[in-house]
Specification:
The chain is mainly α and 65 residues long. The protein has one domain. Helix content is 35%, strand content 0%. It contains 3 helices and no strands. 0% of the residues are buried.
């Protein structure tokens, strides 16, 4: 099951790195990722799932409700 969220992807300020590092704002891949309209990609991705879902929600989805 997929649950759409608003502004799901954030990069430089809110990105969690398990070893405590930070993303470099000058990195070309970070700058490119900030230019991509991720909300449009998420809309298209969300449409690939069925509207109705039978069965139990995933554990991750249950904790976020």
């Amino acid at each position: 099951m997929y649950k759409k969220t608003e502004h799901q992807l954030t990069f430089v300020d809110d990105f969690f790195l398990p070893f405590g590092g930070k993303l470099n704002k000058e990195n070309r891949w970070v700058r490119l990722a900030e230019m991509i309209p991720w909300w449009m990609a998420e809309e298209k991705y969300a449409k690939s799932f069925k509207k109705k879902f039978k069965g139990e929600k995933g554990l991750f989805c249950q904790n976020r409700s």
